Every structure is written in C-alpha cells, then in structure tokens.
Amino acid sequence: MKKVVLNFVLFFSIFALFGQKVPRFQKIPISTSGCYAYFPGTPTNFEFNYSPDSAKIYTGSFDFDGYTYGIVTVKFAQKTGNDKADLELLLIQYMDYLKTSWEITDAVGYGKGHSLESNPDATGVIDYWKTKDGSQLSVKGWIDNYYIGLLYILGKTEYPNINVVQLFQNGFRFPEK
To answer: What are phi and psi of 4, to 5 degrees?
Structure first.
C-alpha cells in the first residue's frame, strides 16, 4: 500500500513539475540608466521620471505566466555615502515609501545584509508584501552609492519556484565602474 501511495505522489509531482512554465531569462538594459537586469522576456518600454530631489527613476515590467516581473531603478542626483549601514537604511526608507504608494497592507519584515557577487559595494534587502486586493509581492532591493535597483514579482499567489525568484531578484547589475 505504501508503494502505491508513494508512486502515486511521485507521478503527480513529476506531472506538476512539467506543467509549470519555466522562464528563459535574458539580460536587458534598464533604459539609459546604465543598469541591467535579467528578465523572462523584454519589457515593452521603460518609463522615465524625475523625483522631487532630481533623481532619475526608471520603471518597467514584463508579464509571464500570470505573474508580473517588475523593476524600479533610481539613479541618485548625487553620490550617497559609503557606509553600508547608511545605504541599507536609505533603501529601507525607499521601500517603506513604495509600500505606502502601492497600498501594501501586510509585510513579512525586512531581511537585511544581502550581498551581490557582481558588486561587493552594494547591499540588499528582501521582503514579502501583500496588497489590499490580496496579491502577493516578493520584493528585493539593491543599493550602492549611485543607484537603487528594486525588483519584484507580483501575482495572485506567491511565485511557486523559489529558484526563479532568486535568479530574477539577484540578476540586477549596476553599471561597471
């Protein structure tokens, strides 16, 4: 009996695995910011705006298999400090601002101290948010002295493949120095 149940579970697990679409990522320039990110397709266009403090803001997204892969890239008007703790605090303040703007109703809490292999000067923060309509967001932000890169995946449910989430959210690339 145990073998029958085990085979049954194994069969349907494999079926579910092959039924899920796995995106093919490609490196995409974030408009004229100098930054890049790995997306599961090409965002149709990036919007460009200035913040009240003259920072350049680039936003873009791409829909794939019922989920939205999005990015907000901020190029500071001036170089910020070098202290990673101060940079992390600035990133958290920006993420708090976005939580208000995007009407986030629930959050898990910030996971701090992430590092990006391609830029040792950068630091990252991750969180999981819920909107007022119940949509789920997995959000990860990166910051260095000149830029913020915030990547998110939005969907009705949490994205089912953590490897895809990590590939996307760790795929932000700052301009080469």
So the answer is: -65, -45
**Alpha-carbon distance 136 to 153, whole Å?**
8
- Provide the number of structural domains found in the chain: 1
Q: Could you tell me the pTM of the whole model?
A: 0.85
Instruction: Specify if 12 maps to a domain.
Output: no
For residue 101, the domain's CATH number is 3.40.1000
> Can you list the positions of beta strands (E) in 34-169?
36-39, 47-50, 56-64, 67-75, 104-107, 111-116, 119-131, 136-143, 147-155
pLDDT averages per 10-residue partition of the chain, 177 residues: 45 44 86 94 87 96 94 96 94 97 96 94 97 97 97 97 95 92
In a domain, 9, yes or no: no
The two tokens of residue 58 are 């680039």
- Tell me if 7 is assigned to some domain: no
pLDDT value at position 30?
Answer: 95
Q: Which amino acid is at 148?
A: I
Cα distance between residue 85 and residue 87, in whole Å: 5
